[in-house]
Design a protein that fits this description.
This protein is α+β, with helices and mostly antiparallel strands. It has one domain: Glutaredoxin. It is 42% helix and 19% strand. Strands 2-1-3-4 form a four-stranded mixed beta sheet, covered by helices on one side. Helix 3 packs across helix 4.
Length: 118
């Protein structure tokens, strides 16, 4: 960083990313971040979700990391609380995360092929 303007831009980016992880929103995306989830790639999944929400300029959406959800063999797990329902997706990599934001969060279409049942 060489200028104060660059520092201000970075501060705004960090604020925007922090807003995605806080507060009560219309849509809540939960990413399991227990040790098993992290080992399976949940950190990349979380980052992809946050980047896609920000890139699309979606408001009313929070992306929240949580601990273990208890389905270790299906990690990374993502739960989407939107449009009056809760949907749990299994084996969510970064590519799937972006598509979930696009199709489910933004367009309201559940991607049934990736939904896991208990």
């Amino acid at each position: 960083m060489k200028t104060v303007d660059e520092l201000r831009k970075l501060r705004e980016q960090v604020r925007d990313m922090t807003k995605l992880r806080e507060g009560e929103q219309e849509v809540r995306i939960v990413v399991a971040m227990g040790t098993c989830g992290i080992a399976a790639g949940a950190r990349e999944t979380l980052n992809a979700m946050m980047q896609e929400v920000a890139a699309r300029g979606l408001t009313g959406v929070s992306v929240t990391p949580v601990g273990c959800m208890g389905l270790c063999e299906r990690e990374p797990l993502v739960e989407v609380n939107a449009h009056g329902g809760r949907t749990l997706y299994a084996h969510v990599n970064a590519e799937k995360a972006r598509r979930i934001v696009c199709e489910h969060v933004e367009a309201g279409r559940v991607i049934e092929a990736w939904v896991t049942r208990n």
